[in-house]
Amino acid sequence: MLEPALLPTPLLDCTDEVLARAGVELRLKRDDLLHPTVPGNKWRKLGPNLAAALEQGHTRLLTFGGAYSTHLRAVAVAAGALGLESVGLVRGEELAGRPRNWSLRAAEAAGMELVFLSRSAYRETAARCAADAAVAAELQRRWGPCLVLPEGGSNALAAIGAAAIPGELPDLGERDVVCCPVGTGGTLAGVAAGLPPGARALGVAVLRGGEGYLEGEVAGLHRAAYGREFGNWRIDHGHHGGGYGRVPAELAAFAERFERRHGVALERRYVAKLLAGLYAGVQAGAFPAGTRLTAVVTGLPDPDPDRGQGLGPAA
Ligand SMILES: *Cc1c(COP(=O)(O)O)cnc(C)c1O
Protein backbone atom coordinates (compact mmCIF):
# COMPACT_ATOMS: atom_id res chain seq x y z
CA MET A 1 0.00 0.00 0.00
CA LEU A 2 0.89 3.63 -0.06
CA GLU A 3 2.71 4.12 3.23
CA PRO A 4 1.71 7.19 5.24
CA ALA A 5 4.49 9.45 6.49
CA LEU A 6 2.70 9.87 9.79
CA LEU A 7 -0.41 8.17 11.19
CA PRO A 8 -2.28 9.03 13.31
CA THR A 9 -1.64 12.64 12.33
CA PRO A 10 -0.84 15.06 15.18
CA LEU A 11 -3.28 17.32 17.00
CA LEU A 12 -2.13 20.87 17.67
CA ASP A 13 -3.79 23.21 20.17
CA CYS A 14 -4.28 26.79 19.02
CA THR A 15 -4.67 29.56 21.55
CA ASP A 16 -5.28 33.26 21.03
CA GLU A 17 -7.37 36.13 22.37
CA VAL A 18 -10.24 35.75 19.90
CA LEU A 19 -10.81 32.15 20.95
CA ALA A 20 -10.21 32.80 24.64
CA ARG A 21 -12.73 35.67 24.73
CA ALA A 22 -15.41 33.40 23.25
CA GLY A 23 -14.50 30.47 25.51
CA VAL A 24 -13.97 28.30 22.42
CA GLU A 25 -11.14 25.79 22.00
CA LEU A 26 -9.53 25.14 18.63
CA ARG A 27 -7.32 22.23 17.62
CA LEU A 28 -5.73 21.51 14.26
CA LYS A 29 -5.80 17.91 13.01
CA ARG A 30 -2.58 17.98 11.00
CA ASP A 31 -3.54 15.78 8.04
CA ASP A 32 -1.25 18.00 5.97
CA LEU A 33 1.61 15.96 7.47
CA LEU A 34 0.14 12.64 6.34
CA HIS A 35 2.13 12.21 3.13
CA PRO A 36 4.39 14.60 1.20
CA THR A 37 2.93 14.03 -2.29
CA VAL A 38 -0.48 12.47 -1.62
CA PRO A 39 -1.47 14.95 1.06
CA GLY A 40 -4.20 14.97 3.64
CA ASN A 41 -7.66 14.19 2.46
CA LYS A 42 -6.42 12.92 -0.92
CA TRP A 43 -4.57 10.11 0.86
CA ARG A 44 -7.58 9.38 3.11
CA LYS A 45 -9.95 9.22 0.15
CA LEU A 46 -7.68 7.25 -2.17
CA GLY A 47 -6.73 4.54 0.33
CA PRO A 48 -9.86 2.33 0.10
CA ASN A 49 -10.12 3.00 -3.65
CA LEU A 50 -6.56 1.79 -4.24
CA ALA A 51 -7.21 -1.30 -2.14
CA ALA A 52 -10.33 -2.00 -4.23
CA ALA A 53 -8.42 -1.46 -7.48
CA LEU A 54 -5.77 -4.00 -6.48
CA GLU A 55 -8.34 -6.45 -5.18
CA GLN A 56 -10.31 -6.26 -8.43
CA GLY A 57 -7.12 -6.86 -10.39
CA HIS A 58 -7.08 -3.46 -12.10
CA THR A 59 -3.78 -2.36 -13.59
CA ARG A 60 -4.88 1.15 -14.48
CA LEU A 61 -6.60 4.10 -12.81
CA LEU A 62 -8.40 6.81 -14.74
CA THR A 63 -9.53 10.12 -13.34
CA PHE A 64 -10.29 13.78 -14.07
CA GLY A 65 -8.99 17.17 -13.05
CA GLY A 66 -8.21 20.76 -13.91
CA ALA A 67 -4.82 22.19 -14.80
CA TYR A 68 -3.76 22.50 -11.14
CA SER A 69 -5.70 19.58 -9.66
CA THR A 70 -4.23 18.19 -6.45
CA HIS A 71 -6.38 15.09 -6.94
CA LEU A 72 -4.81 14.41 -10.35
CA ARG A 73 -1.27 14.64 -8.93
CA ALA A 74 -2.25 12.48 -5.96
CA VAL A 75 -3.66 9.74 -8.22
CA ALA A 76 -0.55 9.85 -10.43
CA VAL A 77 1.80 9.45 -7.47
CA ALA A 78 -0.32 6.79 -5.75
CA ALA A 79 -0.67 4.75 -8.95
CA GLY A 80 3.07 4.99 -9.58
CA ALA A 81 3.86 3.86 -6.04
CA LEU A 82 1.63 0.79 -6.48
CA GLY A 83 2.89 -0.11 -9.94
CA LEU A 84 -0.42 0.82 -11.61
CA GLU A 85 -0.80 2.81 -14.81
CA SER A 86 -2.77 6.02 -14.67
CA VAL A 87 -4.61 8.20 -17.15
CA GLY A 88 -5.65 11.77 -16.36
CA LEU A 89 -8.35 13.49 -18.39
CA VAL A 90 -7.58 17.18 -18.10
CA ARG A 91 -10.03 20.06 -18.55
CA GLY A 92 -8.93 22.37 -21.38
CA GLU A 93 -7.79 21.16 -24.80
CA GLU A 94 -5.78 24.38 -25.25
CA LEU A 95 -3.33 23.07 -22.63
CA ALA A 96 -2.24 20.21 -24.91
CA GLY A 97 0.14 22.28 -27.01
CA ARG A 98 1.53 24.45 -24.21
CA PRO A 99 4.47 23.81 -21.94
CA ARG A 100 3.21 21.88 -18.91
CA ASN A 101 2.63 23.83 -15.71
CA TRP A 102 4.29 22.50 -12.52
CA SER A 103 1.21 20.50 -11.50
CA LEU A 104 0.75 18.66 -14.82
CA ARG A 105 4.51 18.19 -15.02
CA ALA A 106 4.45 16.49 -11.62
CA ALA A 107 1.58 14.21 -12.71
CA GLU A 108 3.45 13.23 -15.88
CA ALA A 109 6.70 12.74 -13.99
CA ALA A 110 4.88 10.24 -11.75
CA GLY A 111 3.89 8.28 -14.86
CA MET A 112 0.41 9.59 -15.63
CA GLU A 113 -0.71 9.78 -19.25
CA LEU A 114 -2.48 13.10 -19.77
CA VAL A 115 -5.33 13.54 -22.23
CA PHE A 116 -6.69 17.02 -22.82
CA LEU A 117 -10.42 17.50 -23.35
CA SER A 118 -12.44 20.51 -24.42
CA ARG A 119 -14.46 22.02 -21.61
CA SER A 120 -17.71 20.60 -22.95
CA ALA A 121 -16.30 17.09 -23.50
CA TYR A 122 -14.78 17.24 -20.03
CA ARG A 123 -18.09 18.27 -18.47
CA GLU A 124 -19.96 15.51 -20.29
CA THR A 125 -17.52 12.81 -19.21
CA ALA A 126 -16.43 13.91 -15.74
CA ALA A 127 -19.90 14.84 -14.52
CA ARG A 128 -21.65 11.80 -15.96
CA CYS A 129 -19.22 8.90 -15.59
CA ALA A 130 -20.56 7.94 -12.15
CA ALA A 131 -24.27 8.14 -12.96
CA ASP A 132 -24.40 7.19 -16.64
CA ALA A 133 -23.47 3.58 -17.49
CA ALA A 134 -23.02 4.45 -21.19
CA VAL A 135 -20.37 7.08 -20.38
CA ALA A 136 -18.59 4.65 -18.05
CA ALA A 137 -18.69 1.91 -20.71
CA GLU A 138 -17.29 4.27 -23.33
CA LEU A 139 -14.34 5.08 -21.03
CA GLN A 140 -13.63 1.37 -20.59
CA ARG A 141 -13.79 0.85 -24.37
CA ARG A 142 -11.44 3.72 -25.07
CA TRP A 143 -8.92 3.10 -22.26
CA GLY A 144 -9.25 -0.58 -21.52
CA PRO A 145 -10.21 -2.04 -18.15
CA CYS A 146 -9.57 0.61 -15.53
CA LEU A 147 -10.85 1.84 -12.21
CA VAL A 148 -12.53 5.19 -12.85
CA LEU A 149 -12.30 7.68 -10.01
CA PRO A 150 -14.61 10.70 -10.10
CA GLU A 151 -13.41 14.31 -10.20
CA GLY A 152 -11.95 15.17 -6.79
CA GLY A 153 -11.92 11.46 -5.91
CA SER A 154 -15.15 11.59 -3.89
CA ASN A 155 -17.09 8.35 -4.03
CA ALA A 156 -18.47 5.97 -1.39
CA LEU A 157 -15.07 4.41 -0.67
CA ALA A 158 -13.52 7.87 -0.35
CA ALA A 159 -16.08 8.81 2.30
CA ILE A 160 -15.26 5.60 4.17
CA GLY A 161 -11.56 6.52 4.01
CA ALA A 162 -12.20 9.99 5.40
CA ALA A 163 -14.34 8.52 8.19
CA ALA A 164 -11.09 7.36 9.80
CA ILE A 165 -10.28 10.99 10.71
CA PRO A 166 -12.64 11.31 13.71
CA GLY A 167 -11.53 7.83 14.77
CA GLU A 168 -8.14 9.40 15.52
CA LEU A 169 -9.72 12.03 17.80
CA PRO A 170 -10.10 10.73 21.34
CA ASP A 171 -13.15 11.44 23.53
CA LEU A 172 -15.35 13.32 21.10
CA GLY A 173 -18.72 14.30 22.52
CA GLU A 174 -21.47 16.90 22.78
CA ARG A 175 -19.15 19.90 22.83
CA ASP A 176 -17.20 18.88 19.74
CA VAL A 177 -17.49 20.23 16.22
CA VAL A 178 -15.11 18.66 13.69
CA CYS A 179 -14.62 21.00 10.75
CA CYS A 180 -13.24 20.68 7.22
CA PRO A 181 -13.32 22.54 3.91
CA VAL A 182 -15.82 21.38 1.28
CA GLY A 183 -14.83 21.04 -2.38
CA THR A 184 -16.76 18.02 -3.59
CA GLY A 185 -17.95 16.98 -0.11
CA GLY A 186 -16.27 13.59 0.21
CA THR A 187 -14.19 14.60 3.20
CA LEU A 188 -17.14 16.13 5.05
CA ALA A 189 -19.26 13.05 4.31
CA GLY A 190 -16.59 10.85 5.88
CA VAL A 191 -15.97 13.09 8.88
CA ALA A 192 -19.70 13.23 9.70
CA ALA A 193 -20.11 9.47 9.28
CA GLY A 194 -17.13 8.73 11.53
CA LEU A 195 -18.33 10.81 14.49
CA PRO A 196 -19.65 9.29 17.70
CA PRO A 197 -23.17 10.29 18.87
CA GLY A 198 -23.40 13.89 20.10
CA ALA A 199 -20.47 15.31 18.14
CA ARG A 200 -21.17 17.33 14.99
CA ALA A 201 -19.42 18.11 11.71
CA LEU A 202 -19.20 21.50 10.01
CA GLY A 203 -18.02 22.05 6.44
CA VAL A 204 -16.97 25.40 4.99
CA ALA A 205 -17.75 25.56 1.25
CA VAL A 206 -14.88 26.89 -0.87
CA LEU A 207 -16.98 27.44 -3.97
CA ARG A 208 -19.70 29.94 -4.62
CA GLY A 209 -23.33 29.04 -5.19
CA GLY A 210 -23.07 25.52 -3.77
CA GLU A 211 -26.14 25.83 -1.52
CA GLY A 212 -28.31 22.76 -1.92
CA TYR A 213 -26.00 21.15 -4.46
CA LEU A 214 -23.22 20.34 -1.99
CA GLU A 215 -25.70 19.15 0.66
CA GLY A 216 -27.11 16.81 -2.00
CA GLU A 217 -23.63 15.51 -2.80
CA VAL A 218 -22.85 14.76 0.85
CA ALA A 219 -26.21 13.07 1.44
CA GLY A 220 -25.72 11.03 -1.76
CA LEU A 221 -22.32 9.84 -0.56
CA HIS A 222 -23.87 8.86 2.78
CA ARG A 223 -26.54 6.80 1.04
CA ALA A 224 -23.98 5.18 -1.26
CA ALA A 225 -21.47 4.37 1.49
CA TYR A 226 -23.71 3.72 4.51
CA GLY A 227 -27.19 3.18 3.09
CA ARG A 228 -28.62 6.05 5.11
CA GLU A 229 -28.38 9.77 5.75
CA PHE A 230 -26.86 11.51 8.77
CA GLY A 231 -28.25 14.51 10.64
CA ASN A 232 -25.07 15.58 12.42
CA TRP A 233 -23.53 17.95 9.86
CA ARG A 234 -24.05 21.21 8.03
CA ILE A 235 -22.28 23.39 5.50
CA ASP A 236 -21.40 27.07 5.94
CA HIS A 237 -21.76 28.79 2.55
CA GLY A 238 -20.70 32.26 3.69
CA HIS A 239 -16.91 31.97 3.47
CA HIS A 240 -16.02 30.93 -0.09
CA GLY A 241 -14.08 34.17 -0.60
CA GLY A 242 -15.74 34.93 -3.93
CA GLY A 243 -15.45 31.50 -5.54
CA TYR A 244 -13.27 28.48 -6.09
CA GLY A 245 -9.58 29.38 -6.18
CA ARG A 246 -10.26 33.04 -5.28
CA VAL A 247 -8.16 34.36 -2.43
CA PRO A 248 -9.25 37.92 -1.59
CA ALA A 249 -6.73 40.22 0.13
CA GLU A 250 -8.58 39.96 3.43
CA LEU A 251 -8.27 36.18 3.38
CA ALA A 252 -4.59 36.35 2.46
CA ALA A 253 -4.00 38.75 5.37
CA PHE A 254 -5.86 36.42 7.75
CA ALA A 255 -3.75 33.48 6.57
CA GLU A 256 -0.49 35.38 7.03
CA ARG A 257 -1.47 36.44 10.57
CA PHE A 258 -2.47 32.89 11.42
CA GLU A 259 0.78 31.47 10.04
CA ARG A 260 2.87 33.95 12.05
CA ARG A 261 0.93 33.32 15.21
CA HIS A 262 0.66 29.52 15.06
CA GLY A 263 3.62 28.49 12.91
CA VAL A 264 1.56 26.38 10.49
CA ALA A 265 1.74 27.08 6.72
CA LEU A 266 -1.81 27.35 5.38
CA GLU A 267 -2.95 26.10 2.00
CA ARG A 268 -5.05 29.04 0.74
CA ARG A 269 -7.86 27.64 -1.46
CA TYR A 270 -9.27 25.31 1.18
CA VAL A 271 -7.57 25.40 4.57
CA ALA A 272 -7.32 29.20 4.94
CA LYS A 273 -11.01 29.54 3.99
CA LEU A 274 -11.94 26.94 6.58
CA LEU A 275 -10.05 28.70 9.36
CA ALA A 276 -11.20 32.18 8.34
CA GLY A 277 -14.77 30.87 8.37
CA LEU A 278 -14.32 29.39 11.84
CA TYR A 279 -12.80 32.58 13.25
CA ALA A 280 -15.62 34.63 11.76
CA GLY A 281 -18.09 32.25 13.41
CA VAL A 282 -16.32 32.51 16.75
CA GLN A 283 -16.36 36.32 16.57
CA ALA A 284 -20.03 36.32 15.61
CA GLY A 285 -20.91 34.15 18.61
CA ALA A 286 -21.93 31.19 16.47
CA PHE A 287 -20.34 28.71 18.90
CA PRO A 288 -21.42 28.58 22.55
CA ALA A 289 -18.68 28.88 25.21
CA GLY A 290 -17.24 25.46 25.91
CA THR A 291 -17.31 24.39 22.26
CA ARG A 292 -14.25 22.52 21.07
CA LEU A 293 -13.55 22.98 17.36
CA THR A 294 -11.23 20.59 15.56
CA ALA A 295 -10.19 21.87 12.13
CA VAL A 296 -8.92 19.22 9.74
CA VAL A 297 -5.90 20.64 7.90
CA THR A 298 -6.70 18.77 4.72
CA GLY A 299 -3.62 19.59 2.67
CA LEU A 300 -0.36 21.38 2.06
CA PRO A 301 0.29 24.73 0.41
CA ASP A 302 1.07 24.28 -3.29
CA PRO A 303 4.74 24.06 -4.16
CA ASP A 304 4.20 26.43 -7.06
CA PRO A 305 7.51 27.12 -8.81
CA ASP A 306 5.74 28.54 -11.90
CA ARG A 307 4.42 31.44 -9.90
CA GLY A 308 7.42 31.85 -7.67
CA GLN A 309 5.44 30.91 -4.57
CA GLY A 310 5.61 28.02 -2.17
CA LEU A 311 8.92 26.25 -2.26
CA GLY A 312 10.23 28.52 -5.03
CA PRO A 313 12.20 27.68 -8.17
CA ALA A 314 14.95 25.85 -6.30
CA ALA A 315 12.46 23.13 -5.32
C1 LIG B 1 -9.09 18.49 -2.60
C2 LIG B 1 -9.02 19.25 -1.32
C3 LIG B 1 -10.16 19.48 -0.51
C4 LIG B 1 -11.56 19.11 -0.98
O1 LIG B 1 -12.08 17.98 -0.35
P1 LIG B 1 -13.48 17.36 -0.79
O2 LIG B 1 -13.47 16.00 -0.23
O3 LIG B 1 -13.47 17.36 -2.31
O4 LIG B 1 -14.57 18.22 -0.27
C5 LIG B 1 -10.01 20.10 0.71
N1 LIG B 1 -8.79 20.52 1.13
C6 LIG B 1 -7.68 20.35 0.37
C7 LIG B 1 -6.38 20.88 0.87
C8 LIG B 1 -7.76 19.72 -0.87
O5 LIG B 1 -6.66 19.58 -1.63
Automatic annotation (TrEMBL):
Keywords carried by this UniProt record: Pyridoxal phosphate
The question of whether Repeat is a record keyword is answered with no
Identify the Gene3D superfamilies for this entry: 3.40.50.1100
What residue stretches are annotated with the Tryptophan synthase beta chain-like PALP domain?
4-299
Names of the cofactor(s): pyridoxal 5'-phosphate
Pfam family, any one = PALP
State the superkingdom: Bacteria
- The answer to whether UniProt assigns keyword Nuclease to this entry is no
Q: Which family does it belong to?
A: Belongs to the ACC deaminase/D-cysteine desulfhydrase family.
**Protein's recorded name:** 1-aminocyclopropane-1-carboxylate deaminase/D-cysteine desulfhydrase
